[in-house]
Amino acid sequence: MTTHLAFFHLVEEPFSNLPDPRFFCACPEHTAAIEACLAALDAAPGRCLLTADPGMGKTLLARHCGQALDSDRWQAFHLLVPNAALTPRGLLRRLCALLSDGVNAPRESTADELFARLAQRLDAIASLGKRPALIVDEAQMLEVPETLALLGALPRLSLLLVGLAGCEEKLTRGLGLDRPILHRLSPLSPASVATYVQHRMARADASAQPFAPEAIEALHRHSGGVPRRLNLLCDAALIEAARQSRANIDAAMIERIAARVGTEERPLSIGDLTAVDRFLDRLLEG
């Protein structure tokens, strides 16, 4: 049986939910979020919260924020919060390894020793004429108040906390911020859904765009402009069209698929998030 990749002459999956930087689409909603975060990091005290509903592409956007920082002025680091029980000492150990190219501090190091080691590393970055920026993904997992307070107390460090909508008050209070710079990532508009679908198909080397304009409208209506849901619907549509040997996808097909598969997906687990983080690191390294 001909697969949808072969049928549409695609070199890879265009609608995978893995946050592959190569498939990032600079829609106006994402561009506005990146610009707002960069401006917040550049302004004193360099604290910004970026929040969004599940499936909006926060992880990929956080990575792009780091890449968009001027490397002559900034040194960016990315931290994925592994679980809600992360203690101040656990955070310090992770940060020490992160800022020291994976070199771990001695296991018996106290929190004070780790803090001093980290402060020294931050000073060393500053001595090179650069500003260190820490981008924290899944920041809603920071449940231990002392851990949040520690992040806010680190010297010379600009912070971008990326998390689920609803965690704003907790993060703001934990960091001791009176007026945080906050940006909420918006769902994709109908025009952005069209751009997103076309961009992803083109990145997968599609020679033609199978989604009709009315299909794009149906995709927006059923996905609500949420990328993860949009990927699910588009992937199912390509598979169904290939099964029927249809080169074009219309609104009726999207309606049938939406009724059959729905747009609900299971939440990502910590194992999923760790795998995603390693996947992104491999892509960015090579």
Provide keyphrases for this structure.
single chain, alpha/beta, elongated, Rossmann fold, Helicase, Ruva Protein, domain 3
Describe it for me?
The chain has 286 residues and is of the alpha/beta class. It contains 12 helices and 5 strands. The two termini are 34 Å apart. Helix 9 packs across helix 10 (227-243). The radius of gyration is 21 Å and the shape is elongated. It folds into 2 domains: 4-17 and 188-261, Helicase, Ruva Protein, domain 3; 28-186, Rossmann fold (3-Layer(aba) Sandwich). Helix 6 (145-153) links the parallel strand 3 and strand 4 (158-164). The chain has helices at residues 4-7, 28-42, 58-68, 88-99, 111-127, 145-153, 168-175, 190-203, 213-223, 227-243, 251-261, 270-285, and strands at residues 47-52, 74-80, 131-137, 158-164, 181-184. It has a 5-stranded parallel sheet, with helices on both faces.
Described by the principal axes of the CA atoms, the overall outline is elongated
Report the sheet-strand fraction.
5-15%
Distance between the termini: 34 Å
What does the radius of gyration come to? 21 Å
- CATH-assigned fold name of the largest domain: Rossmann fold
Report the major sheet: 5 strands, parallel
Please count the beta strands (DSSP E, at least 2 residues each): 5
Which structural class should the secondary elements be placed in? Answer: alpha/beta
Mean pLDDT: 86
CATH architecture of the largest domain: 3-Layer(aba) Sandwich
Widest sheet: strand ordering: 2-3-4-1-5
- What are the low-pLDDT stretches, counting only 5+ consecutive residues below 50? 263-277, 279-286
Number of structural domains? 2
Tell me the number of helical segments per DSSP (H or I, 4 or more residues long).
12
